[in-house]
Structures are given as C-alpha cells and as structure tokens.
Amino acid sequence: MAIGPIHCGTFLLFAATILLLVATISAPVVDKIAFLDINSGAETTSFGVFGYCLRPSSGADQCTGSHVGYDITTVTGTITSHSWVNKSIHGLTKALILHPIACGLSFIAFIVALLSSQIGFLFASFLAFLAFLVSLASMAIDFALFTIVRNHINDNTTATASFSTAIWLVLAATVVLFFSVFIVCFSCVTGRRHERDNHSRGGIGNNNATGGYYGNGGYTGDQVMMDEPVGKRHFWNRNKAVY
C-alpha cells in the first residue's frame, strides 16, 4: 500500500525524535557522539549537551558527570595551554538543555499523530510546531556556541577544532520537523475528505441494497421509474385511460 500523508507525517516525527535523541545522549553519555571535537596532540576532547570527554589515543576515556552547563573556556584552555575568558559562553552551555526538551515534544507529537485521526492531527501539528521552534533555537545556540570555540581554538592555538556528528543531527532534525508540521496538518484535511467520500459511497450502496432507489434517484417500487420513458398518446386516445 502506498504511503499516504498520514503515514509520512508520523514517520517524519519519529525520525526527528530519533535524531534529537542521539544528539541529546552525546558526550559524556556516549563519548564518541559530540558537537565539537578538539584534537590536541594525541588527545581528542569531545563536547556534548551535558559535559565532555577526554579521549586519549591509548587508555580509557575520561568523561565528566552529566550536568547542565559547564565551563568550556577553562577546559579548552587546559587542553591547549591557552587561557581565555568568555563569560557569555558558559550561559550558552546551560541553554543546551533545550535539546532534550525538543526531543520530548517531538516524541509526544509522534504519539499523538500515531493514535489520532482527523482533528487529532491538528493537535499533533501544533506540538510538532513547538518542537520545531525549540529545535530551531537549539540549532542556533549550537552553531553560535561551538563556532566561537572552534574559531578561537583554530586561530590562537596549534590544536584543531571541528564540528562533529551531533550538530548535524540537530540541523537535520530541525529540517524534518519543519516539513512534518505541514504534512501532519495536511493529514487532517485528507482524513476528513476520505471519510466524506466513504460516507457518500456507503449511502449509495445502502439505497441499492434496500431495492428502493437507484443511484440516479429512480424509484424501483410500484411506481414508474423517473428515467423510464412514458408512451406517447395520440390525439384520438386523449380521453382513454392508459393501462
């Protein structure tokens, strides 16, 4: 069976939820998933939503505990031997909490779309729109925060900093949520139209089943059908009854 707009919109919400979930469980939860990687000598530092991980070329990885906000300037200064201060960056790391919020909204929208029909899709579309706005804000913060760090490290140290997987996952999730808003909303319109068409076809079928009427309105009982032609009466038969 072909995938209609209802199935497509629900699938897009599910895909966006998975993308945001993977980005949310970045370092220190999963050390190899990060927004920014800094390579300094034989050591790589990966920054995620709730902290960061130090990944040496040999030996076990060292990750921080999961918490909201961390001092990224102090960390980068330690691993690159270049101290610098930017007070606004620490506040931006606290705003990374928007990622799990966007993931939660997207998941709720997916559940509502999966279990709804017609009007329920409007509510799912509204939730998808909220998830899109939060994801868009998260993406803007990601690029603002980690672009500042990347440019400063590349311009002032011998280490190299580059965007990693998680930041592109958030970008993809934001685009997917944008399209899902319209597709899920369109599902409400198509669902109502399909129900109206099915109701119309069912009404015609019931009339035929009872033997009372044809689809064109002709009566099939004891009376003469509407579309049955009546014989022509000549002038000499005008006063005679027709049997």
Automatic annotation (TrEMBL):
For this record, the Gene Ontology CC terms, alphabetical, are: cell division site; growing cell tip; plasma membrane
Subcellular localization(s) per the UniProt record: Membrane
* Domain of life of the native organism: Eukaryota
Acetylation among the record's keywords?
A: no
Q: Where are the transmembrane segments?
A: 96-115, 122-146, 166-189
Supply the alphabetized keyword list. Membrane, Signal, Transmembrane, Transmembrane helix
Key word Transferase present = no
Q: Which parts form a coiled-coil structure per UniProt?
A: none
Membrane topology (UniProt): Multi-pass membrane protein
Tell me which positions the record assigns to the signal sequence: 1-27
Q: What is this protein called?
A: SUR7/PalI family-domain-containing protein
